[in-house]
Fold this sequence. Notes:
Two copies of one chain form a homodimer. By secondary structure, chain A is of the alpha+beta class.
Amino acid sequence: MTDEIISFITRFVPLTEEEIAIIHEQNLIKSFRKDAVLLSEGEYAKECYFILQGCVRSYYLIDGEEKTTEFYTESQAITPVSYTQKEPSKYYLSCLENSIIALGSTERNNQLLEKIPKLQSMVAQLNSDLLIQKQESFDDFKSLSPEQRYLRLLETRPDLFKRVPLYHIATYLGITPVSLSRMRKRVSTKVKQ
Amino acid sequence: MTDEIISFITRFVPLTEEEIAIIHEQNLIKSFRKDAVLLSEGEYAKECYFILQGCVRSYYLIDGEEKTTEFYTESQAITPVSYTQKEPSKYYLSCLENSIIALGSTERNNQLLEKIPKLQSMVAQLNSDLLIQKQESFDDFKSLSPEQRYLRLLETRPDLFKRVPLYHIATYLGITPVSLSRMRKRVSTKVKQ
DNA sequence: GGCAAATATTATCTTAAGATAAAAAGCATT
DNA sequence: AATGCTTTTTATCTTAAGATAATATTTGCC
């Protein structure tokens, strides 16, 4: 059932049978309906998330407009800023689909880290990897045109286009939905020639 | 001389006198001339850097154009991707000014981490902080217009405008130098009205 | 099947960025 | 002061994005 979590962790550190059992024990798995809000602006996140099934979106609310910053899908972990820092969240997390999510509270995670100290090294590695990824996507974003970013997203995460409305993808790409629609038309006629 | 390093570290973990002494011993400090290249595309970084004095820039070379991705100044640490990963670097690091830089090699840093294990927690915290910062600047970048990004950079890092040529700042903002020049004129006439 | 809500497209107009070339200004060195 | 080099600005033209409003299409639901 939560083998995804185990295989996620063992990408970083090996686990014994006992350790796997401990992790299974600790697991708190919940279902969320589409549009369920996991975290709101202004709230203090007390939990982090691991997506077993479904899709979650993070977004800012700026002048009444939602600006999507990330799409999280199966086997991705979400550690809200306000989980680590003691600040209220600046963004929202909500489900784009009915989702099954493993929750980690501060206390339970700390217990887990005590019982299995090598998980600390996993967390460290994960953060370091995420930093590198984030840096690279940022760099790409800056050096590519909106159209190139769109084409690249089509290649790297084609799944998103099947499960996420285009107007969320548009703000994720840093453009307006109208502009994305126009661009898609432009691109498709280019290809056909 | 390298008190900056100590105070950088003690922002994360407290240090005893002995530990400070150990760190001082380990320190390898070098001077670099303006335009010196610390790391080239394709190279494997064997070192990380801590800037004591000066300014370093990271950039990609794309179709013969340099795209600046970051400016590092006093008391900032640079850990190249290829220092942690076993991949060749995709970008360059070079000095915008004559600079004094503390170097950490993989071996020396590992020795240090063995001698002072709590530094591991510093590294972890640092990565986690950097991840959060990077995420936030990325989010800002996506939701702001080029002009707003320029104005924000003016506020947050006014020093850069005194020490870095505008054409580097332009590519850092994700626009062309010509466009930045035009924008500055536009902005200045706006303000004057 | 029909209706409302959600999502996507189209049209029009305005504004700013990209490309390119050329000129101007600033700086350092002799 | 003259030269060459770096940096910034200006000009022109082209292209695409933003804003806004209207329309079309799709989807879920009773």
